[in-house]
UniProtKB/TrEMBL annotation:
Listed transmembrane segments: none
GO molecular function: oxidoreductase activity
Keyword Oxidoreductase set for record: yes
Domain of life: Bacteria
Keyword vocabulary terms for this entry: Oxidoreductase
The protein, known as: Short-chain dehydrogenase
Organism (species): Paraburkholderia aromaticivorans
Family: Belongs to the short-chain dehydrogenases/reductases (SDR) family.
Length: 237
């Protein structure tokens, strides 16, 4: 699917990676770009339509889907993260519930709401923003990692399910991206603009997955190894 002439709906699009998706869609000639966000106050981007949506609230999702019924490309980008003391921390259950509500169930809810809209179009697609954290042990991100692993699994299931309906599903795997979400984490970070360009190129090429930075590609390549990266990460990751 080509972004040109598409009608794009992006969750979590008020800043960071989501806003980069919106701007690049406009640059590539999208007919309309909806920027989904919890609070639309003060959002002003030329050619981008702000839409209130909270991926943890089914009523707001239904309202957004009704308003944006011309959508042909859905980008499930909304997500949250938090650092904890480790997978046995006192708050691991509470943090896990919070992460899953947005990062996993949010994708499920929004996909369910928009699927009838997309399936009725002759050319439609979904992009799910995932993470290399599903293969990279980082105990301080355990709840976030678990939620993204669930989102990856769901993406694979929904891709297979929607093939017969003609809806392309692309999973975007990426490491740390230089956005507000990663403030305070001192690691190499990918440019959001570069990640978005690669993702839209992969969508146009008909791909099902994109590894949007070198570290993520290296991790994915270890999965069939005797000692995969999720057991012993490659040096430098």
């Amino acid at each position: 699917m080509d972004v040109k002439n598409a009608t794009v709906f992006i969750t979590g699009a008020n800043r960071g990676l989501g806003l980069a998706f919106a701007r690049e869609a406009r640059r590539r000639g999208a007919t309309k770009v909806y920027a989904g966000m919890r609070n639309t106050n003060g959002f002003e981007e030329p050619g981008i339509v702000p839409v209130r949506i909270d991926v943890t609230d089914t009523a707001s999702i239904a309202a957004a889907a009704e308003l944006a019924a011309d959508t042909t490309l859905l980008v499930n980008n909304a997500g949250i993260a938090a650092l904890i003391d480790g997978p046995l921390a006192h708050d691991v259950e509470a943090q896990s519930a919070r992460m899953f509500d947005t990062n996993y169930y949010g994708i499920v809810r929004v996909t369910k709401a928009f699927e009838p809209i997309l399936a009725a179009k002759p050319d439609a697609a979904i992009i799910n923003v995932l993470s290399d954290i599903v293969w990279l042990p980082r105990p301080y991100l355990a709840p976030y990692a678990a939620s993204k692993a669930a989102a990856w699994s769901y993406t694979n299931q929904v891709r297979f399910h929607l093939q017969a309906r003609g809806v392309q599903v692309l999973g975007l795997h990426v490491g740390f991206v230089d956005t507000d979400l990663t403030d305070g984490i001192d690691v190499p970070k990918a440019s959001p603009e570069d990640v978005v360009r690669q993702t839209y190129d992969a969508l146009t090429a008909g791909k099902s997955e994109i590894m949007a930075d070198k570290g993520t590609a290296i991790l994915k390549s270890t999965l069939a190894a005797e000692v995969p990266g999720y057991i012993t990460p490659p040096v430098g990751l």
